[in-house]
Each structure stands twice: as structure tokens, then as C-alpha cells.
Amino acid sequence: MVFTTGGSLQTATDTLTEQAQKILFTFRKYLHRFVNISLDHVFELFDKLIKPILLYGSEIWGVVKRPSIERVHTLFIKSCLGVKVFTQNDFVYCELGRLEIRYVFICHN
Length: 109
Description:
- The protein has helices at about 10-30, 40-50, 50-55, 60, 65-80, 90-95, 100-109.
- It is an all-alpha fold.
- It has one domain (about 10-109).
């Protein structure tokens, strides 16, 4: 975790976002090798490989909405569905039966 002298956790969440995006880039590169993989399996892999990076230290920074972290999740979902970036987030979450990451954190803790 990255802590600042002012006590802001924005730097910490920004760092987690950057780390998750690096791993996500590699994940997508390898994902193209599996042409017949289902969306359920893709999101299961995301939940096991990427989400722990995004939620690292979330016990400290809590369930406050962190747009940078949710943006990684949302953009990945939209790219998997092949929809435009400007597609409504609610529609995309509903289509896949997924929740925002902060709600998943609440449910599991």
C-alpha cells in the first residue's frame, strides 16, 4: 500500500489501478489464444487474477466509491461484450449479472 503524508488513499488506489492494468494487458494477450472460452470462464479468471489486485488493502480504504478501480472493471466488461465505451454501465452490468466491485466487497466481507 502506498500511503501519503496527508492521509489520502487516492495515491494507493491509483497505484493499484496501474498494477491491475498492467496485468490485465498481459491477461488479454493470453486470452486471445483461447477462442472457445466462455464469458463465464473469462470473468472467473478476471475475478481470480485481477480483482484481488484491485481490492488489495480495501479493508483500509473501505467501501468508498473509487472510480479508477471501477473503471478497470467496467472497461474490461465492455471490451468482452464488444460494446462501445460510452454504453451505459448499468446495462452492461445487468446483461452479465455482475455488480460493481465495491458491492462485491461488501457482500464478501
